[in-house]
Amino acid sequence: MTLNVAIVGVGNIGNTHAPVCMENPDTEIVAVCDIIKEKADKAAKRYGARAFYSVEEMLASNIRLDLVSVCTKGEENGSEHYAPTMELLEAGIPVLGEKPISNKLEEAKEMVELARVKQIPYAVNLNHRFTPAAERAKSWIEAGRLGKIHMINMRMWINNPAESSPWFHLRALHPHSFDVIRYFCGDVKRVAAFMMKGEGRTIWSNAQIILEFENGAIGNLVGSYDAGPSYGLELCEVVGSKGRFVLEDACEHLTFYPRNSIETEKYSYLGGMRAFPETFKSRINSFVDQLHTGVSHDQVNGSGEDALKAQTIIEAAIRSWETGTIVNVKDLERIPGGIK
After folding, report:
1. For residue 152, what are the β-bridge partners?
2. Sheet holding 234-240: strands in order across?
3. SS in 3 state form for the chain?
4. Is pLDDT of 305 > 80?
5. In which band, very low, low, confident or very high, does the pLDDT at 334 lie, cut at 50, 70 and 90?
6. What is the mean pLDDT of the chain?
7. pLDDT for 111-120, tens place per residue?
8. φ, ψ for residue 131 (rounded to 5)?
9. Strand order from edge to edge, sheet including 50-52
10. How does pLDDT run across 167-196, given as a tens digit for each residue?
């Protein structure tokens, strides 16, 4: 059955999601929604869909919706996700939200809890894990090829001169970083953070964040909004008792280094994926495939709960820097009566 899809928020990201759904033979865009009428009308014409100007109006139309991409933005790229997501989940409609899940941790908890109570599949666009290279690296870990995981070193940086809240860099960029970190190494136990403002900046545009994991591994994140275009996007190194891998720029190069040999194994552009923008297609299509197979709400890959856990690590890092202490992540992640 073809899934009827709506896009809520048809700015830059919404118009990145939509072509993927147009190309997928298992999806059809039937609705677009934006509070700016001109944007909604333009997108409706472009994608051959009905235009709506609020989620409430769209739901009242009784149009059949099997999946909605929530591509709104707001402060720290996340303040406008909560209201439409809650409306859609309350209506029983699966949601693929953009990151960050929300820039407010309590709102993120409510969204995840509602999806759990209603048993609705809820995913977030944590697209860095949805690359053939990342999936290959994950399979090495699961097969024991790295042995016991000892540490992870993660770096993600871009040149973003925008000035927003003090925590814009942390909350807007590093949901990706911490999701990749959790994807490879599991849940984080404790966080210690150090930050600085780049020249002329009012935000904490550079960060070093030290991590201790529940499984005993250790690691760190280097993040910046003051990077140059020649720096690359990201680098992830995972080290175990038997070997290590290095994953460069999300999907471009993956190398395995055995501990007791000098013979390395290198892949470039696995699956034909050449650059980061292509990860939107792999992520969106993965959730479409999961919905087609009737995925349970608690088996979604890159779920709302995954996004919540990444955002909780960010808030722990903020608290660490504000207080000059090492912060236990569990102190921030509890939901009364809900998930732990």
Report:
1. 219, 238
2. 265-268, 253-258, 243-248, 234-240, 149-157, 218-224, 206-213, 188-196, 327-328
3. CCEEEEEECCCCCHHHHHHHHHHCCCEEEEEEECCCHHHHHHHHHHHCCEEECCHHHHHHCCCCCCEEEECCCCHHHCCCCHHHHHHHHHCCCCEEECCCCCCCHHHHHHHHHHHHHHCCCEEECCHHHCCHHHHHHHHHHHCCCCCCEEEEEEEEECECCCCCCCCHHHHHHHHHHHHHHHHHHCCEEEEEEEEECCCCCCCCCEEEEEEEECCCCEEEEEEECECCHHHCCEEEEEEECCEEEEEECCCCEEEEEECCCCCCEEEECHHHCCCHHHHHHHHHHHHHHHHHCCCCHHHCCCEHHHHHHHHHHHHHHHHHHHHCCCEECHHHHCCCCCCC
4. yes
5. low
6. 96
7. 999 999 999 9
8. -125, 150
9. 50-52, 27-33, 3-8, 67-70, 95-97, 122-124
10. 999 999 999 999 999 999 999 999 999 999
Distance CA(184)–CA(193), nearest Å, equals 21
Structure confidence at residue 118 (pLDDT): 98
How many residues are listed for the chain in this entry? 340
Distance, C-alpha 321 to centroid of its chain: 23
Alpha-carbon torsion, ordered 7, 8, 11, 16, to 10 deg: -30
Contact 62, 42 (CB under 8 A): no
Per-residue pLDDT tens for 226-272?
999 999 999 999 999 999 999 999 899 999 999 999 999 999 999 99
Instruction: Give the residue from 95, 80, 24 showing the smallest Cα distance to 300.
Output: 95
Bridge-based pairing of strands 188-196 and 149-157 is unpaired
153: how many CB neighbours lie within 10 A of its CB? 17
User: What one-letter code names the amino acid at 326?
Assistant: I
